[in-house]
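Many introductory courses stop at the sequence. We go one step further.
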Amino acid sequence: MSSRSKVQMFSYDQLFQVYQKDIFVLDFFQDPAVISNLQVVSSNNTWAPLNTSTSSTTAEVISCSVTSMDFFDRLQEQGIVRESGSIRKCFDEFYEEFVISDELRKVLLLEEAETYPIFSDADRNEFIFLIFMHLCLGGQVCQYEDEITPYLETTKTLYKDLISVHKDPTTKKLQVGSVVLKVSAQNEDGAQVYPSLTPHEQSFAYMCISPLKRHVYVWSHSWR
């Protein structure tokens, strides 16, 4: 996954409002500086600038309200992860292109699993959950971890790097100040050109917008 995933930062000079997200994202992908600098994995598996005209885009708002890693404590409370931090194994099952060899991937992928409901639909739309899920599922060639710690530590690092937080002056509690969008771009024929040419659950791009700093962080991954 590390060779097919990238984070890039851009800046902008206009006021951003969430209700204008569709215009903002389309303008982003049509900007000459973005087109010549936004990296994608080419057909020969090397990184190259987008360099493609974009006629349409999609932008889905992703919830970003979690400010503590306690969010994942339920994995241990529900027996998915042992007290030692090891992930409980299970007999191999197959879901699409993924091999489910432990209880963690059951929680992430199998709706019929008894433990699937420990994360609600709202939980699964949280950006921190999506980071965690993408890291756990990995790339096309993936050697899964036996311990939960590497997944949690990498999730925490990415989350802190991609979003901005501030203290609420009244409650003194941390609040997320970023707007997160799951984005894709299409050419004039309607074919997807970003984040990959072939749609896949593990081909994704998230745009993390900081309205105060006027920074945009883009995290993308191409499955193939």
